[in-house]
Amino acid sequence: MHTVLVVDDDERLRDLLSEYLGSRGFQVVTANDGEQGIQAVQAGGIDAVVLDVMMPGMDGFEVLRRLRPISTVPLIMLTARGDDFDRIVGLELGADDYLPKPFNPRELLARLQAILRRSTAAVSENTAVHAGPIRVDPDTREVHMDGERIALTTTEFEILRVLVSQAGRVVPRERLMEMARGSDYASFERSIDVHVSRIRKKLGDDSKDPRFLKTVRGVGYTIVRPST
After folding, report:
1. Would you tell me how many other CB atoms lie within 10 Å of the CB of residue 127?
2. Are both 72 and 101 inside the same structural domain?
3. Over the stretch 190-228, which tens digit does the pLDDT of each residue have?
């Protein structure tokens, strides 16, 4: 049984999601503000977070800013306004997915199941892969750069795992988009670019003159295979 934390100041929505997700095998923990949400993650035992953006006091963006340095827990943001700016900001801060309000609880369930499969499923290619100083270990779900561990979100990890395993080859954006969310990305293709940008930054790569992660315009992305 997975435990999902719902952080939202709307009591009716918290009750609705508690009942709906609970009836589908999830254990649901709720928080009515950002501070309670952060404390719940810090206490441990949370497998995924559903986080509202528009909350009084500490909004969802600030909650995410405080969470990502201490946790890579899979996280879906609820964006009431549904515009691209909110979505881009959330993804840049480390959200794995987003869902505009109002939404169908069935879609939220599908999104949760997708990110939890990616974060907990035993991948078939469970051997660690390397590309120069980058080492990705699907078994422990850890990434190291020159021996130093790099904290990635679930989505970032999966994108980098595929790129490193295909080092020297161009991976089409469509494949990364499907893998990153597990559903159609057509409505917001810039999402994948934001995830890749965050990965590049964490690798210490220069976006203008990248050493490792390069963009192949109109096609996709590639991790440069190191020369031997």
Report:
1. 10
2. yes
3. 678 888 888 999 998 877 788 889 888 878 899 887 654
